Amino acid sequence: MPTPLRHRPPFGPRLGAVSLITVCLTLLCTLSPAAAGTASEPRPQPHDSLQQQLDELVRAPGGPPGVIAVLRDGKGSRVVRAGVAELGSGRGPEPDDHMRVASTAKAFSGAVALALVDRRYLSLDDTLRERLPQLPPAWGSVTLRQLLNHTSGLPDFVEAPTFLNTLLADPQHHFDPRRPLDHVADRQLRFPPGSRYQYSDSDNIAVALMAEAATRVPYERLLDDLVYRPLGLRRTSLPQGFRLPTPHLHGYDVSPPAVPADVSELLSLSGAWASGGMVSTPADLTRFVRGYVGGRLYGRDRDVVREQRRWVPGAASDPAGPGRNDAGLGVFRYTTRCGVVLGHTGNTPGYTQLIAATPDGRRSLTFSTTTQINETMQPALLRQLRAVQENFVCSLLGHRG
After folding, report:
1. String of b and e for 52-81 (b: at least 16 CB within 10 Å)?
2. Which is the most buried residue in 40, 121, 173, 316, by most CB within 10 A?
């Protein structure tokens, strides 16, 4: 069984808005996700209401200007929100507001890959050598399975000096989305494939490239054919520029005592592509996570679902989700004090995301904040966020305490 690998965050103390954002992209500010959900963390304490908890999160030092959570069960949806969609506007966040979804995009690439496994275009044991022989021979034994559960050992392109220097020079630089692995093509694997867990953005770039190689269809079209249309996603896309559709949730760099800086359109996320470049809405993410976790996209072969849920114990998403985290194939298991949900998290300049659903897909939670919250930048706020998210999960599952 692969074990989580704790590694040093590549960036130092919090930087100014522009410099931080340009070195972080989806960015993922590659953290140390292996330690999440341990017994040493304080037990979340329920408050009188979910609304109160969101209000307190917005008021916290460095807290997001806006938060929106969508809880859905078999009876309907409940939307809980606090703050504003844009500072100075007075308009609250709405379920149809666009936003950057950060690393929850990795669940979409997981959905594409597993749908192709279900249809026999791909196998979880397919290797990079077989599907992508143009990649470095030293990476050849890495399998699709290892890419999907982050045990591949691929070097992470977001840490490469050539990638970071390009981004620093021009935050809106348009990267060839299919070439980010070129930045680390001269590097060996970080460890033998399958022996450890280490979250890497390179993994999901390779997943998308394998899907294209197997089908000879562009990844964007695969998303449309295999995910968007089956689940009725009408406001989800994988853009190449830096503009967001309207209306959108404005994302901010919040660095007290400075005035929050709007960073919604500061970066082009073309370099993030399948690992974190997508745009969606809380309503669409709700539809996606219910269908994805519930197996609606790859239900022909139940072996696919079983393989997806072979967990790497203690391996966390980035940032860590509520409760104890374990990694599967394109999905994480969050074991809270009230029960289990499956999903994914993400953070990028201006946004932090959680999407989760019960294993049958019938109950779901989408939780979006309009600032980047992670262990490197705001550890105390991340602990508060995870506690609030756990309380929301408890409410979703019908628990009060």
Report:
1. ebbbebbeeebbbbbbbbbbbeeeeeebbb
2. 316
132, 151, 77, 79: which is closest to 329 by C-alpha?
151
Range with the lowest mean pLDDT among 9-13, 143-147, 252-256, 267-271? 9-13
Q: What is the enclosing helix (H) or strand (E) of 16? A: none
Q: What pLDDT does 10 receive?
A: 30
**Exposure on the CB side of residue 205, measured as CA atoms within 13 A:** 25
- Cα(220)–Cα(227) distance, integer angstroms: 10
Alpha-helical regions (H) of 120-254: 128-131, 144-148, 161-169, 201-215, 219-223, 229-231
Does residue 319 have a cis bond before it (omega within 30 degrees)? yes
**Structure-token pair, residue 199:** 């979250």
| Beta pairing class for 196-197 and 3-4 | parallel
Reported as a single tens digit per residue, the pLDDT across 5-54 is 433 233 222 334 444 443 444 344 443 344 444 433 445 554 459 999 99
DSSP assignments along 273-296, one per residue: GGGT--EE-HHHHHHHHHHHHTTT
Which whole number is the average pLDDT over 70-84? 95
Kindly report the number of other CB atoms within 10 A of residue 1's CB atom. 10
CA 396/CA 339 separation, integer angstroms: 10
pLDDT above 90 as % of the chain: 85
Distance separating alpha carbons of residues 149 and 194, to the nearest angstrom: 9
Give the residues across from 204 on adjacent strands: none
Residue 35 burial by CB count (10 A; 0-12/13-18/19+): exposed, middle or buried?
middle
Tell me the β-bridge partners of 368.
68, 353
145-171: pLDDT as tens digits: 999 999 999 999 999 999 999 999 999
Given a contact cutoff of 8 angstroms between Cβ atoms, the answer to whether 324 and 314 are in contact is: yes
Structure tokens at 52: 């109160």
Q: Record the tokens describing residue 106, joined without a space.
A: 């990795």
- Please tell me the predicted confidence (pLDDT) of residue 78: 96
Whole-angstrom distance, CA of residue 142 vs CA of residue 147: 7
